[in-house]
Amino acid sequence: MTGSVAVMGTGIMGTGMARSLVRAGLDVTVWNRSADKARPLADDGAKVAADAAEAVTGADVVVTMLFDADAVAEVMQRALAATPEHAVWVQTSTVGLAGTQRLAELADRYGRGYLDAPVLGTKRPAEQGELIVLASGPRALEPQVAPVFEAIGSKTVWVGERIGDGHRLKLALNSWVLSITAATGQAIALARGLGVDPQLFLDTIAGGGTDSPYAQVKGRTMIAGEFPPAFSLAGAAKDAELIVDALREAGDDPSLMQAVHRLMSTAAAAGHADEDMAAVVYAFR
C-alpha cells in the first residue's frame, strides 16, 4: 500500500498530478529544479523539498514528470540512492524508446522497481485527475502504485509486462494528436488566407464524421490567437522527434511526422516555444 509519494518535476503536468495526489489523501512531497514552481504546492498540502534526494527519502513511489530523458536521468542519478529499497519509480515523462531503456537500466543498477507509465492528457486532465495512464512493466508492482494511478488518472491501460510498451503506445497516440493539431492549423491558416472565416471550417465539420473534439479545442485557440499552454509547443516538437525515431525503428515511413516536427520546430523558433502547441498555426504564415 502506498502512503508516501514524491513528485519530481512541477511543470504544467507535474503540478496538476501533485494536486490530484494530495486530493486523494496521499502524503506528497514535491521537488522542482526551479523551486519557485514547486512552492505554491505547499498551499495545497504538499511538502516542498529543497533537493531531489530529500524529496525521495522515505517515498513508497517516486513519480518523474520532467522534460526529456536527459533531465530525468540527471535528477534520478542523484536521487535513487536516497530512496527506500522497496520504492517503485513510476516514470511518466515522454522520453522515447531509447530513453525508456536507459532509465530502466538506471533503476536496475540501484535495484529499484521501475514502471514505464507515460500519460495521455494535458493540463486540465492532470489537474482533474483524469489522465490515461499507459503502464508497462511487472504487474507484481501494481498494488503499490495503484493508489497513485487512481489519483492521477481516470483509466489505467496495462499495455504489457515488457518495459517500454507503455511508451510504444504513447508514441502511437501522440502521432495522432500531433498530426490532428498540425492539420487543424493548416486548415485554419488556409481558410483565413483564402479570405474565408476560419470558424466556418470548425462549424462545418462539427458533429460529422470528420469532426474531432481536439480539432475543435485547438482550432478555437488558433482562431482566438491566444495560446495559454496546456501542452507546450516545445514539448510537442520534442515528442514529434521521438516519434520520427520510433517510426524509423519500426521500419515505417516517417515523412508525415518529419513534416509535423518541422512545422512545430519552426513555430517554436519564432518565439512560441512556451505557448500551447496550437501555436503551430504560426508556421503556416
Question: What would you say about this model in short?
Answer:
With 285 residues, the protein is of the alpha/beta class. The chain has helices spanning 12-23, 52-56, 69-79, 96-109, 123-128, 142-152, 165-193, 199-205, 213-224, 233-250, 255-272, and strands at 4-8, 27-31, 47-48, 61-64, 88-91, 113-116, 119-120, 131-136, 153-160.
Explain how this protein is built:
This protein is α/β, with parallel strands linked by helices and 285 residues long. It folds into two domains: 4-162, Rossmann fold (3-Layer(aba) Sandwich); 168-284, N-(1-d-carboxylethyl)-l-norvaline Dehydrogenase, domain 2 (Orthogonal Bundle). Helix content is 50%, strand content 14%. The chain has helices spanning 12-23, 52-56, 69-79, 96-109, 123-128, 142-152, 165-193, 199-205, 213-224, 233-250, 255-272; strands at 4-8, 27-31, 47-48, 61-64, 88-91, 113-116, 119-120, 131-136, 153-160. A six-stranded parallel sheet has the order 3-2-1-4-5-6, with helices on both faces. It is globular. The protein starts with a strand and ends in a 13-residue tail after the last helix. The mean pLDDT is 97.
Instruction: Give the C-alpha Rg.
Output: 19 Å
Secondary structure tally, helices: 11
Shape: globular
Considering DSSP H and I runs of 4 or more, what fraction of the residues is helical? 40-55%
Number of domains: 2
Question: What is the architecture of the largest domain at the second tier of CATH?
Answer: 3-Layer(aba) Sandwich
Q: Can you summarize the main beta sheet? A: 6 strands, parallel
